[in-house]
Amino acid sequence: MGAGESSASVDTGMRLLLASRSAELDAGARAIGWKIGINVPVLQTHFGLNGPVVGYLTDRTVIPVGQSIDASEWEHPALEVELAIRVGEASDVAGLAAAVELVDLNLPFDNIEPILAGNIFHRGVIFGTEVRDLELTELEGVVKVDGQVVARGTLNELPAMTIEFVQVFLAERGATLAPGDRIIAGSLIAPMTIGSGDHFDIELGPLGSIRVDIC
């Protein structure tokens, strides 16, 4: 896929994504914020992208901490460990939290347009307790099963840089990053396949932990 073709696919996909968001909001959903997608360089190269892309979050997919997750009807369910950023009044970092995104990798990785139109595989998000006045320069995410570490990863971009990226990306496409929005900043680890009976403990250092139970 050439650069021009990938750019056109992103533009078309984002129009469809933002139209879906508008339809959800018109139907009564409440805007929560945005999500970074395709933040892995090898995938960006595969799709001919210059960087990640941006999806959206509404209250329709927020899952309370402690609620078991039924992914039995998803094709390829997976879990991603993320940092959640609260946007301040001056487009600064107002708060940080651990987050887990649930995705269904149900589309082939051969065209970015339908992936964007489907809101980049998004199915749900769990937010940990928000922490304010924390200046974060590094962060390690750890996934444990039965007390044993099964995956770990580190933050690759400071929260302020993520806010700036999302603000510019949305503005170029006629959308707005607003004070109070939350951004989940892309997975710290490769997506982990999940299935019935799985139990995960997600730890993000000073941001605490989240327990994820798949029923």
Question: If you had to describe this structure to a student in words, what would you say it looks like?
Answer:
- This protein has 215 residues and is α+β, with helices and mostly antiparallel strands.
- It has four helices and eleven strands.
- The protein has helices at residues 3-26, 41-47, 112-117, 159-171, and strands at 31-37, 53-58, 77-87, 93-104, 122-127, 140-145, 148-154, 182-184, 192-193, 199-203, 209-213.
- The strands form two sheets. Strands 1, 2, 3, 4, 5, 8 and 9 form a seven-stranded mixed beta sheet that branches. It has a four-stranded antiparallel beta sheet with strand order 7-6-10-11, with no helix packed on it.
- The protein is globular.
- The N and C termini lie far apart (40 Å).
- 35% of the residues are buried.
- The mean pLDDT is 96.
